[in-house]
């Protein structure tokens, strides 16, 4: 029997004015988020400024609220996925969807997560780069060779031939040049404010560990595939440990989608702003029936197509 998956995006899908056509439907979830955070989150995503929305401590709650709000609407219309997952930040949205985390806990957690990640490395000392057109193992090999006593490592395995690396800026620049020499189609530094998902994030992981000790995590009621090992986690203690490890470990997105397919998933829905994951998912496995719910206007057509 074919299975359905819902997946939730991470940072990079935000933009000022997103979801403006969905205000009436999403007002309840954004009211809850604003109350928990202590500021008007809906006003920020509608009116900016863009520089503030793109700061990770604001980006993360904005995308979580957007994704969970759209998930709630899909669920009300009968969506019943067999498995959920999220890319980086999106893992928190997936855990809320699976009722392992409460929304109020999650929205404050990701705000703090953003603050911890930004403060872990002084501005300008770390960054990330996208490497296109090289084998995953070749990128790993180049990172190891070019580290030179600094930190640089694969941070996101997004799809075949698309790896994001993170680390100290000087080491990252060496990796970019070495990847070009090795035949990469493109190797370019990204406009991000910190080197996420590498060992430089260990101070943030330590802070997150302390914070998560006081957060109640329930047994998920939908199967959840987590980023750090592309495996299912049902034990709350294991979910907590994986969330901590995720801060300084690679996102195994390609393996997550491959695991879904091997376990019988044929339909996959990206739930949240943008279409980043939908593009990656198609590159990982073209057999997938891929849809996305990026606003409330998408609900009827996408939900109506599920199971057909």
Topology (SSEs and partners):
Elements: E1 3-8, H1 23-37, H2 41-47, H3 50-53, H4 56-76, E2 83-86, H5 90-97, H6 103-120, E3 126-132, H7 136-146, E4 152-159, E5 162-168, H8 169-181, E6 186-189, H9 202-212, E7 223-224, H10 236-246, H11 253-262, E8 265-271, H12 276-284, E9 289-293, H13 299-305
Parallel strand pairs: 1-2, 1-8, 2-7, 8-9
Antiparallel strand pairs: 3-5, 3-6, 4-5
Helix pairs in contact: 1-4, 1-6, 4-5, 4-6, 6-9, 7-8, 9-10
Features:
4-stranded antiparallel sheet; alpha/beta; 2 domains; 308 residues; 16% strand; single chain; Malonyl-Coenzyme A Acyl Carrier Protein, domain 2; 13 helices; Alpha-Beta Plaits; 47% helix
Write down the CATH topology of the largest domain: Malonyl-Coenzyme A Acyl Carrier Protein, domain 2
CA(first)-CA(last) distance: 13 Å
Largest sheet, described in full?
5 strands, parallel
Strand order of the largest sheet: 7-2-1-8-9
Overall 3D form:
globular
Estimate the strand proportion. 15-25%
Rounded Rg: 19 Å
Number of helices: 13
| Alpha-beta content class | alpha/beta
The CATH architecture of the largest domain can be named as 3-Layer(aba) Sandwich
Give the number of DSSP strands. Answer: 9
User: Which superfamily, in CATH terms, is the homologous superfamily of the largest domain?
Assistant: Malonyl-Coenzyme A Acyl Carrier Protein, domain 2
**Mean of all residue-level pLDDT scores:** 96
What level of helicity do the residues show?
Answer: 40-55%
CATH class of the largest domain: Alpha Beta
Low-confidence blocks of residues: none
Number of domains: 2
Query: H/E series, N to C?
Result: EHHHHEHHEHEEHEHEHHEHEH
